[in-house]
Specification:
There is one protein chain. By secondary structure, this protein is of the alpha+beta class. It has a domain of 90 residues: Sandwich (Immunoglobulin-like). 15% of the residues lie in helices and 31% in strands. It contains 1 helix and 9 strands; from the N terminus they run αβββββββββ. The strands form 2 sheets. Strands 2, 3, 5, 6, 7 and 9 form a 6-stranded antiparallel β-sheet that branches. A 3-stranded mixed β-sheet has the order 4-1-8, with no helix packed on it. A hairpin with a 2-residue loop joins strand 2 and strand 3.
Length: 143
């Protein structure tokens, strides 16, 4: 009989904890940030007569944002989605070969800026990716 009372007490305690957790208000679950559209514009100025083309695919749930390329803090390319599948055709302004390019993506639906985990080296008159096999970096929220 004592074992039954101990077991019944344990069950009652578990139910009481479960009920209090069930009635506890939930924290809002939102992945939406609060970053306004950065309105990136190309800031690299050069007299070089070359460029680099990148066909990139963004897969972040909301693919209709803005993709931008940077060399240091200078924006060297901006693109909007070519289709609803997140395909971007990005022309990178002339720069010296060998510079490291980083990529950022702004999602207007999620109001976040994402930075690509991978970088690329600028190659004059170079190409990266195709429509059939686009460059597809992975992303981290960085705002």
């Amino acid at each position: 009989m004592k074992k039954f009372l101990v077991l019944a007490s344990c069950v009652m305690m578990l139910l009481a904890v479960g009920c209090s957790e069930r009635n506890k208000p939930e924290e809002p679950k939102s992945n939406t940030g609060n970053v306004a559209d950065p309105q990136w514009v190309v800031t690299v100025e050069t007299d070089l007569n070359s460029s680099m083309t990148v066909v990139a695919k963004v897969t972040l749930g909301d693919n209709n944002g803005t993709l931008a390329a940077f060399i240091g803090d200078d924006c060297c390319g901006v693109a909007k989605a070519q289709d609803e599948d997140g395909l971007y055709l990005l022309f990178i302004s002339p720069s010296e070969s060998g510079n490291t390019i980083t990529f950022k993506f702004y999602s207007p639906a999620q109001k976040h800026i994402y930075t690509a985990n991978e970088t690329m080296t600028y190659v004059a008159d170079g190409h990266e990716g195709t429509v059939a096999a686009p460059y597809t970096p992975t992303w981290t929220v960085t705002d």
